Structures are given as C-alpha cells and as structure tokens.
C-alpha cells in the first residue's frame, strides 16, 4: 500500500506508516526521498497496531533517517497531548532534545504550507524547542 502511495500517487507524507519498518527497501526509499511518516505512538498502542511501547518503530525509523514526525492523532479521543507523546518517547527510547528537535523540524519540512509560511514558522519552532 505504501509503495503504491509513493509510486502511483506521489505521496510526500504518509499518516502512521508503522508497518514500513518491515520492508528495508521501503525504509531506504522513505529516507532517500524524504517522505515523512506521521507517527502517533499512543494512538497506535490504543488501537493495537503495535503490541507495546518498545515494539513501536518510531525510534528505528528515525535512526534510519526517515523523516519521522510525532503527533497525537485524535487527541480528544486518545486523551493524549504532544507533551505526553514526548514523555512516552523519552521514557521508552531515551529520546532527548536532539530527537525531539529532529521530529519537529521534520514536521515543518513536511507541512503543506508555502515557503513564506514555512520560513515564518521555523524561528518560532526553534525558539520554542530551546525552552
């Protein structure tokens, strides 16, 4: 399905994409073409897409240079905030500021906005990450 999204539809960003980790060629393609995966760890746990926190592929994909982003998915349904996701990733994979910064900058790069908006948001994101 992801191959078709890339090859047939020219996808630049894919929601969730947790199963990408099972195909090394796909992981290489996502990294090479800078196709962002919007990861939602808590939602994936709640829906049973992954069996456990440690089984979530977000860390492996980030370390494979796939442009991973971290989101809350359905925040009002899942009962999770972005701060909760950040803490989950810190506690599970030992993520520090570098990993979190990378994910947020990946999100900025993958955002469907014009260059002027992206340029305006960049300093704000960088400033907020420095807090």
Summarize this structure briefly.
Keywords: Hydrolase, Metal-binding, Zinc. By secondary structure, the chain is mostly helical.
* SSE class: mainly alpha
Strand content: 5-15%
What is the N-to-C order of secondary-structure elements (H for helix, E for strand)? HEHEHHEHHHH
- Unreliable stretches: none
Number of distinct helices = 8
Global mean pLDDT: 92
How many domain modules?
1
Shape: globular
CA radius of gyration is 14 Å
**Helical residue percent band:** 55-70%
The first-to-last residue Cα distance is 39 Å
Main sheet strand line-up: 1-2-3
Largest β-sheet summary: 3 strands, parallel
Please write out the topology.
Blueprint: H1 2-7, E1 13-15, H2 24-33, E2 36-39, H3 41-46, H4 58-63, E3 68-70, H5 75-78, H6 82-93, H7 97-110, H8 115-129
Parallel strand pairs: 1-2, 2-3
Could you walk me through the main structural features you see in this protein, from its secondary elements to its overall organization?
By secondary structure, the protein is mainly α. It has one domain. Strands 1-2-3 form a three-stranded parallel sheet. Helix 7 packs antiparallel against helix 8. It is globular, with a radius of gyration of 14 Å.
Q: Which descriptors would you attach to this protein?
A:
three-stranded parallel β-sheet; 8 helices; 56% helix; mainly alpha
């Amino acid at each position: 399905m992801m191959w078709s999204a890339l090859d047939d539809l020219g996808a630049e960003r894919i929601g969730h994409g947790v199963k990408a980790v099972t195909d090394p060629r796909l992981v290489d393609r996502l990294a090479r073409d800078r196709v962002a995966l919007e990861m939602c760890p808590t939602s994936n746990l709640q829906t049973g897409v992954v069996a456990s926190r440690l089984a979530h592929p977000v860390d492996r994909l980030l370390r494979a240079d796939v442009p991973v982003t971290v989101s809350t998915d359905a925040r009002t349904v899942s009962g999770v905030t972005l701060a909760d996701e950040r803490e989950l990733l810190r506690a599970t994979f030992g993520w520090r500021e570098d990993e979190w910064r990378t994910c947020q900058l990946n999100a900025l790069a993958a955002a469907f906005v014009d260059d002027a908006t992206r340029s305006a948001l960049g300093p704000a994101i960088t400033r907020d990450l420095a807090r």
